[in-house]
Write a structure and sequence with these properties.
The complex is a heterodimer of chains A (about 325) and B (about 300). The longest helix of chain A is centred in the first third of the chain and has 37 residues. The two termini of chain A are about 30 Å apart. With about 325 residues, chain A is mostly helical. Chain A is globular, with a radius of gyration of 24 Å. Chain A has one domain: MetI-like (MetI-like fold, Orthogonal Bundle), CATH 1.10.3720.10. With about 300 residues, chain B is mainly alpha-helical. Helix content of chain B is about 75%, strand content about 0%. Chain B is built from 13 helices and no strands. In chain B, helix 4 packs antiparallel against helix 10. The radius of gyration of chain B is 26 Å and the shape is globular. Chain B starts with 6 loop residues before the first helix and ends with a helix. The chains are: A mainly alpha (about 325), B mainly alpha (about 300). The interface between A and B is large, with 102 and 98 residues.
């Protein structure tokens, strides 16, 4: 078996695979060893089972949700009031998911406003400006930042960032729970993701391109902004998209600091609710299994899963392109 | 930059960029400083966060805080249940995740034939890494809490451990594969040439050689697992003193440090929301720090360069 191409390693710079496959693959096995091989295969198959389990669980209860006479897909996707609680026959029962989507997009937008400029500045600084000594310190520090538990960041958003915002904009403008402080802290959380992936892309730009630009008399700023940046653009775009995916799926920061009131608003200083925060809130409410409220958790989970999946597929497409350039 | 470029426009642009050398170096310096400041902001926020939490919580830390259960009174509450829960989770997640992850890595790196199923597994692992952790919680809730309740005990420590183990499985697999890949081919050829079977080579040569890297990756992923809140919150961790678990009680209700922190932070009283929460955060961060330090130590001490 002369296999070379593997799914995760397209040919090009990005391929760090051994040039030849492991020789263990071809050798013959004893009978008893087939059992062990089967066990190893099972270990690898568990990851597929995990995905299958997620899809099954989420979509089974989500379809039960949509199967209920009080719920229509149309209202779910276009309704602007989210109140899937209590008796579905009452007037107060509404299943429009848009307020949750609105909350998620608002927080994600704020987070990206912080994360993209800071992440790109960090990437440019680390790839082309920082002296080796500084790099050696900064990269682990960014890794530490990426490893801070999100519940800790939520605490920080609520007890530090919110008072700061209230001090700046006034107690009457900024509510105790608000999208802005959650979004800002989330943005800081995403900086390491964007910075390290973009820096990989920028470091992969061949030195000859830089040398060429310098040779034509470009100052460093132009080399970085007009040669390295465009050349690394697809990798940078992939980094930003992955950052968006993380922001959409982030749970604890928003559950702690952004509030639990689904509303259609673009005001960053009032409380909102995101899809993820709704899942946490509704699970905490101990809604019995089989109830509409319980199923609504999975309907929101299905939407969340689909959106992050789509985001990830788009990002992977960009990653593949950036790997193939050189 | 998709603007139409005409000779005239190009010429005008070129002329507009002819600035005096002094001005040019000034712009260079401003730009470099801007990038530095942009990088420094996140480092600064991290520093502020650490200092803020230390100031808030250091005074509340005491032996009593570590050894007492949670209480209705903020000044008497403690994190014993959360701490034992987190330590048990760490052990159980490792016990479940490590063999499966390493098994999968050995299979994919050394034995997997190049067929469609292998490619499916590999693409799948890449995608699983991007699934939000709260969705793993839904998996735990739907399958391990309800469908497999007779096996897992419902909202139990075991359910939480399995959920977290599945969450970090892709990380363990990727780290283990990288570590196996670093073992030179000559070791494999040598083993086979001496008459060892492929599994003997994998078990006696490759795994010992790759172990430091595998362990480092596993410990780092464990530190991610015990910092996670959303998956176990959704999969049934309880936030009260009902839980006081140790890893030999896998079928009982459990709580963990992040769950207790979330519980404290959600209360209105300062005694919980700030004092108790930040003290618990300090304990959690210390546990994480110890884990990460041991991983780095392991890597520096035993990692082999081929």
């Amino acid at each position: 078996m002369a296999s070379t191409a593997r799914a995760d390693a397209p040919s090009g710079v990005g391929a760090r695979q051994r040039s030849s496959p492991s020789p263990l693959r071809q050798a013959r096995r004893r009978n008893g060893e087939r059992v062990v091989m089967a066990l190893l295969w099972l270990c690898a198959a568990i990851s597929v089972l995990t995905t299958a389990g997620i899809v099954f669980v989420v979509f089974a209860d989500a379809s039960a949700f949509f199967g209920h006479p009080a719920v229509t897909v149309r209202e779910f996707l276009t309704g602007t009031v989210w109140q899937p609680f209590g008796n579905p026959d009452l007037d107060s029962f509404h299943v429009g998911v848009l307020p949750l989507v609105n909350g998620t997009l608002l927080v994600t937008g704020i987070a990206m406003l912080i994360a993209v400029p800071l992440g790109l500045a960090s990437a440019m600084y680390l790839s082309d400006y920082a002296p080796a000594r500084v790099r050696k310190v900064l990269k682990p520090v960014l890794e530490v930042l990426a490893g801070v538990p999100t519940v800790v960041l939520g605490y920080f958003a609520l007890t530090f960032m919110t008072p700061v915002l209230r001090g700046i904009f006034g107690l009457s403008t900024v509510q105790i729970f608000n999208a802005a402080s959650a979004g800002i802290v989330m943005g800081i959380m995403i900086v390491p993701t964007i910075a390290s992936l973009s820096e990989d892309a920028m470091s992969a730009v061949p030195q000859s391109l830089r040398d060429g630009a310098y040779g034509l008399g470009s100052p460093k700023r132009h080399v970085v902004l007009r040669v390295v940046f465009p050349a690394a653009l697809s990798g940078i775009v992939a980094a930003v998209i992955l950052g968006i995916g993380r922001a959409i799926g982030e749970t604890m920061i928003v559950a702690i600091a952004a509030g639990n009131l689904p509303q259609m608003t673009l005001n960053p200083f009032v409380q909102i609710q995101t899809m993820t925060a709704y899942i946490v809130q509704a699970v905490g409410g101990e809604s019995p299994r089989g109830s509409l409220t319980y199923q609504s958790i999975f309907a929101v989970g299905a939407l969340l899963f689909l959106s992050t999946f789509a985001v990830n597929v788009v990002a992977q497409r960009f990653v593949r392109r950036f790997r193939e350039v050189y | 930059m998709a603007v139409v470029s005409t000779p005239e426009r190009n010429a005008r642009r070129a002329v507009s960029q002819l600035v005096a050398p002094a001005e040019r170096t000034r712009r260079e310096r401003v730009f470099a400083r801007l990038l530095f400041v942009g990088t420094a902001v996140s480092v600064l926020v991290l520093a502020v966060l650490v200092v803020d939490i230390l100031i808030d919580g250091a005074g509340r830390l005491s032996l009593d805080f570590l050894t007492s259960y949670s209480s209705r009174f903020a000044e008497r509450t403690g994190i014993r249940a959360g701490l034992t829960g987190t330590l048990s989770l760490m052990v159980l997640v490792g016990v479940i995740g490590f063999p499966i992850g390493v098994g999968a890595a050995v299979y994919l790196e050394e034995f997997a034939p190049d067929n469609r199923f292998t490619r499916l597994i590999e693409a799948n692992i890449a995608n699983l890494a991007a699934v939000p952790s709260v969705v793993y919680g839904l998996l735990g809730l739907g399958i391990f809490v309800y469908v497999l309740a007779p096996l897992t005990g419902g909202r139990s420590l075991l359910t939480g451990s399995i959920t977290l183990a599945l969450l970090i499985l892709p990380v363990i697999i990727v780290a283990s594969r990288e570590s196996l890949r670093a073992v030179p081919r000559a070791i494999r050829d040598g083993g086979l040439a001496l008459g060892a079977t492929p599994l003997q080579v994998a078990w006696r040569q490759l795994l010992p050689a790759a172990l430091p890297g595998i362990l480092t990756g596993t410990i780092l992923s464990l530190s991610r697992a015990i910092g996670e809140t959303a998956p176990i919150l959704v999969a049934g961790a309880v936030g009260t003193r009902a839980a006081d678990n140790e890893f030999w009680h896998p079928f009982e209700a459990f709580t963990a440090l992040p769950i207790e922190i979330f519980g404290y932070v959600s209360r209105p009283q300062t005694g919980f929301k700030v004092d108790a929460a930040s003290a618990a955060i300090i304990v959690l961060m210390v546990v994480l720090l110890l884990l990460n330090a041991s991983a780095i130590l392991l890597r520096n001490r035993y990692a082999r360069r081929w």
